[in-house]
Amino acid sequence: MAAQQETPVRSVVVPFEPDTSLDALRRLGPHEVVERWHAVDRSTQAPHIVAVPGDDGEEWVAAALVTARPHTAYLKIVDAVGDVPAAVAAVVAHARGLELAQVKWEGWTVSPEAAAAAGFVPLCPPLGQPDNATGPATGHVRWLDDRAVTEPPYYGQTTHFTCGAVTALVAQAHAGVMPAESINRRAELTFWRDATNFPACEPVGLGVAVRRAWPSSPVAVHLDTDRPVMLDHLSESEQEWRACLQRMSRTDADGVGVPVHPRHLSVAAIRDAIDRGEHVLLLVSLAGMQGFDVPHWVLCHGTVPGAVVIEDPWADAAKGDTWVDAHLLPVADPSLDEMSAVSADGFHGAVAIGRPRRGGVPSSGPGGEQSDNGCLQR
User: Fold this and answer.
1) Is residue 352 a contact partner of residue 278, using CB atoms and an 8 Å limit?
2) Is the pLDDT of residue 368 over 50?
3) Tens digits of per-residue pLDDT, 344-354?
């Protein structure tokens, strides 16, 4: 997208609280918009109002509700009211001032034409989501350095434990190994069944399952501990048989040719892998982004200056967190490095998936072609 000239906009930024300038908001926006802003507790996502004052410097002529996951490199416009172009321009300027990578805009009230006029492009809607998912049918994104990242399909995991399976499927769809339209609940659960350590997917088992499902894709596991992982919350008897399964996974890895590297895959190494056209399934803690220390798989698939772009198959609807947050999500390099230390002893796990080999030679990939659903493919 070509760089756009922007007219400076005066604005004010204030925290959003349940009683924040309700009169001003009701004057600017429809009742249902103001109600939506107050429908959930967004407090963990630093909600704030970016408002544009009128000529008198007092009354607002435009306002936007803005949120973001902690420790990320974007802002999300939930809605803009009043003079919408002025409100959005103020948010973009605010994001630039914070040196962020991106602004997103949930499609509750904005048309594709209005979003495009403000420099945003549409996000491909989710292929699937859990039954309790909330969020708009559409969303839009604007990259602030004018360097778009190719868009994988988005699929929201339908269980609490299939994040590893979903990230693997989305990675292979983005690589052109499988059609995006084939990602559905049956595919999600089928792959999970082959990879699980009951109920979660541990790194070695996940890598083995990827190799077995797609023999043409080179796979390498990075795990900087030789002990069983992701079992600390279980009783000793429950840990024992799952530990046995993890030892079996290491034997299987030897058998199918999946190397297990006993070292941390650094953010610099993740960037290098992505630059080579690879995908990285990264095990992270959700403590930073969601407030609870639970191991979780995300897909690293793109880079922008200072941040790695991930797909997170899970969104916390109770916090106003939607697929628009989780899709094409930039995370600053230091934050991603911190998130990748999992559990109290801080082990690191990742699965790197190389470009598929055809006839023994790494494939060049589709190179920007579109899939049938219109999403850009690497």
Assistant:
1) yes
2) no
3) 779 999 999 99
- Kindly state the tokens that stand for 314: 């899970």
Q: What does pLDDT average to over the chain?
A: 92
Report d(CA 203, CA 245) in Å as an integer: 12
- Rounded Cα distance between 248 and 162, Å, is 21
Per-residue pLDDT band for 129 (boundaries 50, 70, 90) equals: very high
State how far the alpha carbon of 208 is from the alpha carbons of 9, 20, 221, 263, 266, in Å.
Answer: 53, 52, 9, 18, 21
- Neighbour count for residue 14 (Cβ, 10 Å): 12
Q: Of 273, 337, 327, 263, which is closest to residue 307 (Cα–Cα)?
A: 337
> Strand 295-304 and strand 279-285: pairing?
antiparallel
Distance, in Å, from the CA atom of 9 to the CA atom of 41, rounded to the nearest integer, reads: 29
pLDDT in tens, 221-272: 999 999 999 999 999 999 999 999 999 999 999 999 999 999 999 999 999 9
**What number of other Cβ atoms are within 10 A of residue 61's Cβ?**
17
DSSP state of 216: T
Instruction: Flag whether the pTM goes above 0.90.
Output: yes
Tell me how far apart the alpha carbons of residues 41 and 166 are, in angstroms, rounded to a whole number.
Answer: 28
Compute the distance between CA of residue 100 and CA of residue 103 in angstroms, rounded to an integer. 8
d(CA 376, CA 174): 8
- Per-residue burial over 311-350, b = 16 or more CB atoms within 10 Å of its CB, e = otherwise: bbbbbbeebbbbbbbbbbbbbbbebbbbbbbbbeeebbbb
User: What DSSP string runs through 12-72?
Assistant: EEEE--TTTTHHHHHHHS-HHHHHHHTSS--GGG--EEEEEE-TTSSSEEEEEEEE--TT-
Q: Could you give the CA distance from residue 55 to residue 10 in angstroms, rounded to a whole number?
A: 10
